[in-house]
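To whoever is covering the structure queue this week,

Two jobs came back overnight. Logging them here so there's a record in the thread.

Job A:
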Amino acid sequence: MPARNVIKPYVENGAYHLYNRGVEKRLLFLDGMDYGVLLRYLKEYLLTKDTDNLSKRLSDPNTSYKEKDTILKLIRLNNFSESLNLLAYCLMPNHFHFLVRQTGANTIDQFMQSLCTRYTMYFNRKYKRVGTLFQSVYKAVLVDNDEQFLHLTRYIHRQALASQGETLQDQPSSNPEYLSDRKSPWVHPEEILAFFSKTLPHLSYMSFVKEKEDSEIIKKLTLED
């Protein structure tokens, strides 16, 4: 029997919880650079590609050969800005969580294959290893109601909370976008934040995140043992 959430019923305009961890539960991120590389990949895939500006820089005689090589790679790189929105994310040492909404029926599979393959190549090259980095195929769960939708974002962002108290760790997540502490055009918190108040603290998104999780609602959306 295949592992839970490996077989994925994809639908147009569907919201999905995507997650995976390192093979044999190994670490996926060994230092700050590793986190930064995956975040840069997300930005390159999800930010609208300025092809005109890239082409101008490529034709500029003052652009170095090294810069031109980088520009050519960016021009050829897959881009999902028109077909996939990243609503929330958290990167943990040995796993990751994404909440995304796709417009087409096949975007997620193309996006995840490209992202995971590219990061594996980077990781293996840096740490002089070979073979699979991620545990099997990534998992995906269709989020089919508002209650599940909201509780899932809380689950994802609570991954970035310290085990003691409610102090944010340095684990990379979209929590700063939700608190208006940072604005990243490739992260889209507005769909979730529309459910919360911007002026009443007890009805704010942060107040919601600090509440106790409902384990029954998110039970099927979490990693297997």
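Job B:
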Amino acid sequence: MTRKFKKCLITGATGSGGSYLVEHILEKNLNIKLFGFYRSNGYLKLLKKKYNAKLKFIKVDLANFNHVKKSLLKIKPDLIFHLASNADVRGSFDNPLEHVKNNNIVTANLLEALRELNLKPLIIICSTSEVYGNVKKNKMPITEKQEIAPINPYAVTKTFQDLLSQVYSKVYKFNIIITRMFSYTNARRHNLFQTAFAKQIAKCEKYNKKYIFHGNLKSIRTFIDIEDAMEAYWLCATKGKIGEIYNICGDKIISVETFLKQLLKLSKKKIIPKLDKKLLRLQDIDLQIADCKKFKKDTGWKPKISFKDSVKKLLNHCRQHP
């Protein structure tokens, strides 16, 4: 069975992930009304230029409960993708209070406003693999039954989001599916290490610079392309089982160092990588290999874009948008 929707709302629609999801849904040419909540402009101009007639943006401060409630009442969506959050892992060590204040309240306000309005859309809570923390090697691959044990302030806020959503699902009978997305390429999110590498390489090529700077290269992760990640979100909404928690991850398992080397192979000039201790996290995830058999089984999803093609696409985007 494939669900169909009339009104879809994306929170954080002008952010890096939200903007890609907007594009992905609209490119499908679905007969669906698309709404985007946003606080900062982000990629608003880009999206309006491409799709102005196909979606409606509403400036909403999700930290303002009454504003959230009024905006939801006007739309009455039957599908919500909740992506809005401050998603800077490294930055959360420097400003933990800022992350906690923002990320916790925006989710609590969204869920409670829906409860007070007695609206029951399907809600895709876009959580993260960061909630698992540093899982021991003998417990790999990570399944959805793995204990939550966050190791950075950002991951703690996403754990709150994750757990609160589970409570609303069980207690208030909300229609919620939680996704825990593992590493994916996102050229618009500049604080991801792979994007930071690609942007530095693009600048080295353009301005004839010699060095790029990196943090921890030893961390081992699974990777998927941004397009595969966005298709996973959509299939989660249309085919995922309500009440489930899903890992979403790629089949490619590599180190951060290997990712960097692949980017450097594609460079038009010789570039030397150098460690910048300021880029090191106070705690980091050393190994993160996931199992997403349940998600594949329930939705039929599988990654389509190869690792090499994804890296090439990332670097070309950063060359075009330095």
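Note for Job B: Residues 7-186+224-248 form a domain with the Rossmann fold fold (CATH 3.40.50.720).

Please reply-all if you pick these up so we don't duplicate work.
Q.
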